[in-house]
Structures are given as structure tokens and as C-alpha cells.
């Protein structure tokens, strides 16, 4: 069993190999997850992200961890770091979904 089961579901299900065909940006993927999953699930994802970010992993180790969790997105191709991208995801998940 994964140390980060909620993140594994998030990355494998939302940042799969065809994510760019379904969403305009990585931010849109995160917003879709936040807006479509339960508040409890999103809160668990944020908690797991906080735990992952609290580990003293370098960029290569973070990249390997995210790949192991099923992510097919590489933030370095957009000029971001792995740690920065994860921190941005945590912030975006904490944001309130816009009202319809």
C-alpha cells in the first residue's frame, strides 16, 4: 500500500499520460480535482502533500516519488521545480472553489 494513497489516486487519475488532452493546463487539472472530489478527500490530499513536502527530499527524489505515485506531468518543462509545483498544488487545493 502506498504511503500517500490519496495522492496516488490524484496523480494517477488526474495527471495520467493523456492529461493534456483533457485539460488546458496543470492548474486546470488541480481545479477539476478540487471541484469534483469531496471536501474530505481534498483535505486528505492536502495533508499528504504537506507530509511529502515536509520530507527532506531533493528534486530528483521528489521527481521519482511523483512518478511512483503515477504522475505523468513534469513541472520542470514549464520552468518550475518539483517542490514549487507541489507547494502550488497545496495552495490551489486549499482555495475555495468558485461559485457557479
Can I get a quick summary?
The protein has 100 residues and is mainly α. 64% of the residues lie in helices and 0% in strands.
Order of helices and strands: HHHHHH
Q: Helix amount, in percent?
A: 55-70%
Number of helices: 6
The largest pleated sheet is described as: none
User: Over the alpha carbons, how many angstroms does the gyration radius reach?
Assistant: 13 Å
Cα(first) to Cα(last) distance is: 37 Å
Q: What portion of residues belong to β-strands?
A: under 5%
The computed structural class is mainly alpha
Structural summary, described in words:
This protein is mostly helical and 100 residues long. Helices cover 64% and strands 0% of the residues. It has 6 helices and no strands. It has helices spanning 5-14, 19-22, 26-36, 39-54, 59-68, 82-94. Helix 1 crosses helix 4 (39-54) and helix 4 (39-54) packs antiparallel against helix 6. The longest helix has 16 residues, at 39-54. The model has no long low-confidence stretch (mean pLDDT 91).
